Amino acid sequence: MIHRDLFTVAHRLAELREEHRDLDQAIKLLIQAPQVDQLQVRRLKKRKLKLKDWITRLESEMIPDLDA
Fold first, then answer.
1. How far is it, in rounded angstroms, from Cα 30 to Cα 2?
2. I need a surface site. Which of 2, 27, 31, 37 has the fewest CB within 10 A?
3. What residues have CB less than 8 Å from 45, skipping those under 6 apart?
């Protein structure tokens, strides 16, 4: 059961990282456009930060708790 949960978390992490990369690319393209839609850029950056928070949280969940 634990192995399956780790696989599920690892799979979700991969999805979130891919979306994070895609957003990064989209932001770069938007910024290079002649008419920059600042509102859209802000929304994408906010989403990217939210994804980074989720990624960090899931990564910390994958670290086993060690009883010292």
1. 42
2. 2
3. 27
Task: State how far the Cα of 39 lies from the Cα of 44, in Å rounded to an integer.
Answer: 9
36-61 per-position pLDDT tens digit: 999 999 999 999 999 999 999 999 88
For the chain, give me the number of helices (H) and strands (E)? 2, 0
Tallying the residues shown for the chain, one arrives at: 68
Q: What confidence tier does 5 reach under pLDDT thresholds 50, 70, 90?
A: confident
- Token pair 């899931």: residue: 58
| 51 class by beta-carbon count within 10 Å (0-12 exposed, 13-18 middle, 19+ buried) | buried
- The pLDDT of 14-32, averaged and rounded, is 96
